[in-house]
Design a protein that fits this description.
With about 300 residues, the protein is mainly α. It is built from 14 helices and no strands. The longest helix is centred in the C-terminal third of the chain and has 29 residues, at about 210-235.
Length: about 300
């Protein structure tokens, strides 16, 4: 019964990866809205909608959490986005994205520190395959050169990766904290993003209904519901499988961009697809095997 619940929570967590795959398409559709303003709009909308849902369902009391819980959630969500935006502003996007996308690997490695979790060699192999596929995908099959002149950007990319990996793994230690509290984390992240926007950016609002629709889609799914389902996954699911499977997000995002005419299908995309898929299957070997064995015994 416990294993069934773990598989279900893992599947729910994987839905976050699918939603994050739409970031590229919806982000492209949002026009020239600067990053922190876009962050503020999306988290503001998603947090407000979640707050309304909590009020209607009589669950507002679940937001009554210790200060350390609020600090943890807000720093995790906002810290990741702050350092990611800092990275892409101060380093070449390809290198910054590649460094940032070490967070799935870090999740798998850090998970070994959790009670009841055991890191096995196939988890590491599967995640490294995913990282290799993501590197190929992000670089387009071309060489990657790290320059000392972008130390601030590279450092920020490392910080963003560490923030999200730490947030994801440490969420497991706060398993008793209800997922509904993510609504509060979203609202606090929106407020901090407004402050960064005012200090660092020029205001450019979405132009036209299509761009506003893209912002709403971002708020509803990849910058909204995804954080709630990810919380369920990392707290009660197979965190190592989730970490390895997270490498499918950039792949699916690229395929969606190609489907909508924002890119082309190349050999490097095909090889990356194979590596990431193989990596996810290798990492999930235990869960797939147990599921199949259970089906044969019924």
């Amino acid at each position: 019964m416990a294993e069934t619940g773990r598989v279900k929570a893992t599947a729910i967590g994987l839905s976050a990866v699918l939603m994050w795959a739409t970031l590229g398409v919806f982000g492209a559709g949002s026009g020239d809205v600067p990053p922190f303003l876009l962050n503020a709009l999306c988290f503001g909308i998603s947090g407000t909608l979640a707050l309304i849902w909590l009020a209607v369902s009589g669950k507002l009391d679940r937001l009554r959490q210790p200060l350390k819980v609020w600090a943890f959630g807000t720093i995790g969500l906002f810290g990741f986005h702050f350092f990611y935006f800092t990275a892409i502003r101060n380093a070449p996007p390809v290198e910054a994205n590649l460094i940032n996308y070490t967070w799935p690997l870090l999740i798998v490695l850090f998970s070994a520190l959790l009670p009841g979790e055991k890191l096995r060699i196939h988890h590491v192999i599967g995640t490294i395959l995913g990282l290799a596929g993501a590197a190929l995908l992000i670089s387009g099959g071309e060489g990657i050169q790290f320059s000392g002149g972008f130390a601030i950007g590279y450092g920020a990319a490392v910080a963003s990766s560490l923030f999200w990996a730490s947030y994801s793994v440490l969420s497991r230690r706060l398993g008793a904290v209800p997922t509904e509290t993510v609504a509060g984390f979203c609202l606090m992240t929106a407020i901090l993003s407004v402050c960064c926007h005012i200090a660092l950016e020029e205001t450019v609002w979405p132009a036209g209904s299509l761009e506003w629709a893209s912002v709403l889609a971002l708020a509803l799914f990849p910058v909204g519901l995804a954080f709630f389902t990810w919380d369920i996954g990392v707290k009660r699911g197979d965190i190592q499988v989730l970490g390895a499977a997270a490498y499918s997000a950039p792949l699916l995002s690229t395929l969606l961009l190609i489907a909508f005419g924002f890119g082309a299908l190349t050999m490097s995309v095909g090889v990356a697809c194979l590596a990431i898929t193989l990596g996810a299957v290798v990492a999930a070997k235990d869960m797939i095997f147990k599921k199949g064995r259970g089906a044969n015994t019924r």
